[in-house]
């Protein structure tokens, strides 16, 4: 495996020709090194068929992807909290495989993956269970991991929504089976209103609002309301202004597909 840790983008040389060029972006150094080790692949003769570039700063990551188009991007971050970055990458590389790695993912992360397409969400436990026989990119390319639950593609003409937030609402209605439940969640609960405040505002009983909240938590497998409810149903766009890299104007919840 050839792993390049980038401390200065100017030092990076991509003049060699590799079969696979993989960029790993991880703000956490130790996790990034572990993921980089899982990303290398060898041929039957034991020769490297990929090179892995590891970066820990967002500015360095964006500079590198502007130098040369990679074959895979691996990001050790939460998709729901980096929508502006994903929007930029999708506008630049429409069908590039992007792999996100985390200990676990929430409903909002899955909605980001469905909306933008060609995004794989891989949990740490699954990745390390295949080591050393399975490299990270094989989760995308190997038929052993194919199936409806593993695919990263999406038929964009089948998405009846123009924004990421609309897509989440559309999917939530289908999961809960109720527009009323979805409206209470998206218009009130994710904004931090208490059950009593909501019940007074919409002229419904506290018991009914609690029931709506319970239905959502059951549908999304949310066990801790305080920690996971709002993050499961909302998006944000962390990082420096993407406009500095000539991205089109993208709001975290209002980023349209092409």
Structural class: alpha/beta
CATH class of the largest domain, anyone? Alpha Beta
CATH architecture of the largest domain: 3-Layer(aba) Sandwich
The tally of helices reads: 11
CATH topology of the largest domain: the name is Rossmann fold
The low-confidence parts are 6-18, 239-258
Strand order of the largest sheet: 1-3-2-4-5-6
Please report the total strand number as a whole number.
Answer: 6
Please name the fourth-level CATH homologous superfamily of the largest domain. Response regulator
The multimeric state of the shown protein is single chain
| Count of all domains | 2
> Strand-and-helix sequence, N→C?
EEHEHEHEHEHHHHHHH
Mean pLDDT: 80
Compute the CA-based radius of gyration: 20 Å
Strand content: 5-15%
Q: Sketch the major β-sheet.
A: 6 strands, parallel
Indicate the overall shape: elongated
* Separation, N- and C-terminal Cα atoms: 37 Å
Percent of residues in helices comes to 25-40%
Describe it for me?
With 258 residues, this protein is α/β, with parallel strands linked by helices. It folds into two domains: 132 residues, Rossmann fold; 69 residues, Arc Repressor Mutant, subunit A (Orthogonal Bundle), CATH 1.10.10. A six-stranded parallel sheet has the order 1-3-2-4-5-6, sandwiched between helices. Strand 4, helix 3 and strand 5 form a beta-alpha-beta unit.
């Amino acid at each position: 495996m050839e792993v390049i840790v980038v401390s200065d983008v100017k030092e990076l040389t991509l003049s060699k020709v590799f079969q696979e060029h993989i960029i790993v972006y991880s703000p956490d150094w130790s996790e990034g090194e572990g993921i980089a080790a899982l990303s290398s692949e060898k041929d039957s003769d034991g020769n490297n068929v990929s090179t892995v570039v590891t970066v820990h700063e967002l500015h360095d990551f964006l500079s590198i992807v502007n130098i040369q188009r990679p074959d895979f991007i691996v990001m050790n971050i939460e998709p729901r909290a980096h929508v502006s970055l994903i929007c930029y990458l999708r506008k630049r590389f429409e069908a590039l495989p992007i792999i996100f790695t985390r200990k676990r993912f929430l409903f909002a992360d899955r909605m980001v993956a469905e909306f933008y397409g060609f995004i794989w969400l891989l949990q740490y436990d699954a990745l390390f269970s295949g080591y050393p026989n399975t490299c990270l990119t094989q989760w995308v390319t190997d038929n052993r991991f194919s199936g409806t639950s593993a695919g990263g593609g999406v038929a964009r003409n089948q998405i009846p929504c123009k924004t990421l937030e609309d897509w989440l609402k559309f999917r939530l209605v289908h999961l809960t089976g109720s527009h009323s439940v979805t409206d209470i969640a998206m218009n009130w609960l994710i904004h931090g209103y208490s059950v009593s405040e909501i019940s007074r505002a919409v002229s419904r009983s506290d018991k009914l609002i609690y029931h709506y909240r319970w239905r959502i938590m059951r549908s999304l497998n949310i066990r801790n309301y305080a920690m996971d409810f709002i993050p499961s149903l909302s998006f944000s766009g962390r990082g420096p202004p993407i406009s500095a890299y000539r991205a089109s104007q993208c709001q975290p919840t209002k980023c349209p597909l092409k």
